[in-house]
Specification:
This protein is mainly α. It contains 9 helices and no strands.
């Protein structure tokens, strides 16, 4: 058996694999399988017919135009805006839920009022332990210097060594 071209797919062998199995020629079967490409994408089942189709414009703007999609809903406004949705009350009063939905489709409101990943809501800050709250405050405003009390280690050691603090330590223990 002679093969004239590079073997990539089992379809190029025709019925040679079937004949080698039917006639119990294990050596030929193993040789044919070893000559095939090792890349799974070269197998015949992944060889789909290719047609010459004009490439369409796949940009986001072209797809939005083709599908008639409205404007993109922003996650947050560029600058802090606490008054997002302030006019929704007029829509509810005048036309109801349909007017709000129409306005949301035409001019989508941001999902959040601020674009700050480091912002911690006040309700969370109020529930923090005082030490954690101080660390957070120090982290958020490093320009404000909090007065840290410094320990006089030498004086503390002298008090321990002289016995002044030993009576207080015994009471505490």
């Amino acid at each position: 058996m002679q093969i004239e071209q590079l073997l990539l797919k089992e379809a190029q062998l025709g019925i040679a694999l079937n004949l080698s199995v039917r006639e119990s020629r294990r050596g030929d079967f193993a040789l044919l399988l070893s000559a095939l490409s090792q890349d799974a994408l070269d197998f015949s089942q992944f060889d789909f017919p290719r047609s010459a189709v004009d490439e369409k414009d796949k940009s986001e703007e072209a797809l939005k135009k083709e599908l008639q999609v409205g404007p993109k809903k922003p996650l947050a406004p560029a600058e802090y805006d606490f008054l997002i949705g302030q006019y929704n009350r007029y829509f509810v009063k005048d036309g109801g839920l349909e007017d709000i939905k129409l306005n949301e489709c035409l001019d989508p409101e941001p999902l959040h009022i601020r674009d700050n990943k480091l912002h911690v809501p006040l309700s969370v800050v109020e529930n923090l332990e005082p030490a954690v709250r101080a660390k957070l405050f120090k982290q958020q405003s490093p320009e404000i210097k909090l007065q840290d009390r410094e320990m006089d280690a030498a004086g503390f050691y002298d008090q321990l060594a002289s016995g002044e603090m030993q009576s207080q330590l015994r009471v505490a223990v």
